[in-house]
Amino acid sequence: MPDNTSILVEAGIADYGREQYDKAIEFFDTALKREPKNADALKWKISSLRGLRRFDEAEKAAEDALKLFPDNVSLLLERGFVEQSREQYEKAIEFFEAALGHEPKNAEALKWKITSLRLLGRLDEAEAAAEGALKLLPNNVSLLVERSYVENSRQEYKKAIEFFDAALMREPKNPEALKWKITSLRLLGRLDEAETATEDALKLLPNNVLLLLERGYVEYVRQKYEKAIEFFEAALQREPKNPEALRAKVSSLRGLRRFGDAATATEDALKLLPNNVSLLIERGFVEQNREQYEKASQFFEAALGHEPKNAEALKWKTTSLRLRGRLDEAAAAADDALKLLPNNVSLLIERGYVEHNRQKYEKAIEFYEAALKREPKNPEALRARVDALRLLGRLDEAEAAAEDALKLLPDNVSLLVERSYVENSRQEYKKAIGFFDAALKREPKNPEALKWKIASLRALRHFDDAKMAAEDALKLLPDNAPILVEAGIAEYGREQYEKAKEFFEVALRHEPKNADALKWRITSLRTLQRFPEAETIAEDALKLLPNNVLLLIERGYVSYDQQQFEKAMEFFAVALKHDSRNPDALRWRAASLRRLRRFMEADKEAETAIGLLPSEPTLLTERALICFDQRQYGRAIDFLNQAIAFDSKNEEAVKWKTNSLGAQQKTDDAIKFLEGLMPQFPMSVDLRVQLGWLYLDREAWDGAENVFLEAGAIVPADSPSLLGRAETFMRQNRSDEAVRLLRNRLETLPNDLNVRNTLGWIYNQRNDPLSARKEFEAVLARASKNVAALNGLGAISFAQEDYEKAEEQFREVVALQPYEPVWRGNLAWSLARQQQVESLGDESSSSRSKEKPIDRLAEAEQCCQKALELDPNYANAFGCLGVIAFKRGRLRESEDHFLQSIRASKRKGSYVDLAALYVKMARYEDAESQLKTALELDRNDVLAHIERGNLLLQNEKTKEAIREFRQATGIDPNSEGAQRALALTLIHSGKGALDEAEKILRDAIRRMDKSKRWSLHLTLGQLLEKRGDETEDQRFYVEALSEINKTVALKDDESEPHFQAGMIRNKCGEYRAAIRSFERCLRIDKNNFIAERNIERIKSGLKEEKQKVTKWTRVGGISLCIVSFAVLAVLWWGFYHPGYFPEQGKGDHITPAMLITLTPILLGLIVVSFLLPALIRLKLAGLEVELSQPKLKETLAVGPKGEVGFGTSLPNISRGPR
């Protein structure tokens, strides 16, 4: 080792430049042994100890040196640097000022005093100090640069650039000025200018690492990470151990989501610089991006092991705990960090974030404001404060805070975005879009602004505009997963669920663990009702992100939609373990209990949730629904009013308040309430659709159609508004227009399952089962478990009177959705229709199979009771109970049930069935009253018109009855019941009407579906029978019997065709065949006493005729036998004794020819005389039996029947056609 002290110091400085601080200290110590007062050796030893972050040793060395040289400016400066490295800026300033006391124009002391003031956030003092320094040294480049830093700290980048330019005029190649001018341009978002400035700077200093890094940062901000990496690698070629270049390369790899490569690059960097804190922190970021928060924390802890007061490591350690939901630990970590660095702004902000995540926004604001006291222009603190105020619902304060922040930082993009969020929270989406556009002017590729602009357009229901905005955004950022997700949500809003799913899948290819993409993919599958697939995808997603609350809740929704409420609750409970205050998990757990009819538990759950989040409208709304389902409508409205008070634009609360008013039979109040709110909801489709349904209930057809059209104009692809229009047409008996409307929609949106289901139901109502089946099967081809389509197929079977098949199909629907009362009701109807009249112990009451349970009415009754447990106001269930009671012969009980049905729903009550019951009870005035109400509610109610016609017939008002039946056929030409009633009435009204009746029946038979023809063939047979009676032409009976046989072929399990066949066969003289027909009728309907009586009459007539005929045939037979035998004997005797009679002339004797001819004849007569009684029994030509048959009044007055339902009983959720 050389002996020259100066050489030793220079050697140490050389090692210092190589960051080999330990080796450098050895040289300085050796020099100081030779020359203890060597100021340079003392200074550089202190610098080396600082480089090793051995601040206590550096402080001691500096103090010892100052004892030797108390006025040495370099040593005073170095002592200040020690405090600065400890972030003890106040103390550092003292030493810089001490140096300036000895050397007022010392540029380094002036510069670092300004720097310390700047780092303390005392920017006005820093500015004054810089201005003072520049007066002393106006051309000093480092002071001009420091003056720029002051403006940079104020985010006054334009002003900063002026000072950098001034510095560069004096020193064009000053790398610091060149670098920070570029940085300022970059922070202004002027990336093209920043790129040009960097390229120009690199022409001056092509190998400058700082400039190469800055050039990479420009590309990094543009999100052109591959290109950025090229510049960072160029910097590393020149300086392989440059920590900033190493870290920036890793950050770029993270931006490309190449986390494996990023981890490898960081590990390689740490081999070069194993103790580098910034690289350890970056390594933690890699794990954080992988959502491996535990592992990330380990790297942050390692960084803190080397540098316990590293603010970035402290902050991100807290962040990792926070992101894992370990908020208490995060708060403790942040508090500990603030004890070390009490004035650190990033730590104060992070401490605020912990409270933010706890939803303790007031407390969070305290920390943000503490940060702002130290750094008034800190954009992160400014934004977080606005966000907390917004989440507290203090939107005016949030707006004021955002405006104040923008006055400080008018071009700050994150503040402009936050300002937009304030308007979004007010549902002022157009205004929000204005701020997003302002942000995008400053930073066209800002992903947050691009994403939320699309979201705001969606909120405005401008789905086509949202789609276009998404397409434009993807041109700028084609691989950005959040924007791809937003594009998918836009397609979801357009009801293009398959296309939406494609976007979510593309997003997941770029970012496999993107929670939003995973969630929306599952949501799309749920909406498509592809539940098994949705369940599989949800389970796979939870394997990737097992603790993700969003996915746990979505998994719960999959079970909830399948009415697996117990299972759904399990997932909501797990979500609450991770986020105990999550409003969605809290709400849907209570909702699951509600759907299970566990109201006490549901109410307690909702009450507890509201205790946690007292101002959360969704929880108040859920509590209202719990009351609603218990018919506590007044209490429900109280909770809904509270929800509306917290959020006046909460559509769900408004909608359910309307439903509650409707449930109280206050339709006019509901209409007035909604009409008054429409100006506050200019873009609400749902509320307009609901208002349209209320108008329909009031038969305000024009008002309803206008509102539905208005809703459709807001969102052209919206199904509920279109279905509302279709219902408007159906209510006015304009089914052709309804069909045309829905078919047009399916041409553009063929996969709209709701529209296709509704179209199928309309076809079924129009007695077009083939078209209906086609639509329902098309739905099931896309969603095999679609309950509406499966229910539709059951309804077709029901309409075709194939009740056993309908029962099978309805059972499948109930199995899929056991908590839907409509499906239970439909199953009850299919069971009830299979049993004509209850007869305990009578196996013949089963219409088909003797293997099935006999007591179907009991099971139907149980189904109705279950439906009423699910919905105590389900009118159709009461109606079915009424029919069951009627079939059991309990007429008073039947009446009570029908009245309950009407009380449950004034609109959907069983008025017609009650009227039919009153007709059977001969209470004609009561029947008329019920039918009048039914027709006031729906003047196109075909069943009401038919029943009214029947009532008129009972009162011998045939002409008026015919007019009523004609009206029914005019409303629905495909109603076989109306056609048959009209034809029967015409048949029995007089001879002149038979031709018209026959034409009606033959036209209807040609037009109707096969399943509907049997009753028409039956009626045509009755008509032909009547013609035969009037003309005594047997050909009419033959033709009538042919029609009856067609009826039997179509409907073998109905008693009436067999009865009619017996009547006609009797008239054709086929008495024993007639008896067989009546017996078959009796096997189907044991209580048909008329058939039983007819059998007895035919048998009695046959017996009397047989007795009468037998007496005379015996006398005649004996006489014939005696005469024939006598003649034969005389004939043969005369042949053998020709001369016995003397008077016999010639030629008068018996010849052989005569004998041969007459003998067989006489023998035949003898045989006939013995067989005559038996031959008479084969054909009784003269038998006439007067048989009984039901009168016309009895034929039409069959009593209450009921019908199945289509949609859910929940108001305004899935209304569907009625």
Would you write up a description of this structure?
- The radius of gyration is 49 Å and the shape is elongated.
- Among the domains are: 457-579, Tetratricopeptide repeat domain (Serine Threonine Protein Phosphatase 5, Tetratricopeptide repeat, Alpha Horseshoe); 581-664, Serine Threonine Protein Phosphatase 5, Tetratricopeptide repeat (Alpha Horseshoe); 1108-1190.
- The chain is mostly helical and 1218 residues long.
- The chain contains 65 helices and no strands.
- The longest helix has 48 residues, at 1089-1136.
Gist?
With 1218 residues, the protein is mostly helical.
Pick out its properties.
disordered C terminus; Serine Threonine Protein Phosphatase 5, Tetratricopeptide repeat; mainly alpha; about 1200 residues; single chain
Proportion of residues in β-strands: under 5%
Through-space gap between termini: 103 Å
CATH superfamily of the domain at 457-579: Tetratricopeptide repeat domain
Radius of gyration: 49 Å
Please tally the β strands and state the result: 0
User: Number of helix segments?
Assistant: 65
- CATH arch. level architecture of the domain at 457-579: Alpha Horseshoe
Could you say which overall geometry the principal axes of the C-alpha atoms support? elongated
Largest sheet: none
What is the fold-level CATH name, i.e. the topology of the domain at 457-579?
A: Serine Threonine Protein Phosphatase 5, Tetratricopeptide repeat
Helix content: over 70%
Any idea of the CATH class of the domain at 457-579?
Answer: Mainly Alpha
Low-confidence stretches: 838-853, 1178-1183, 1207-1218
* Mean pLDDT, all residues: 86
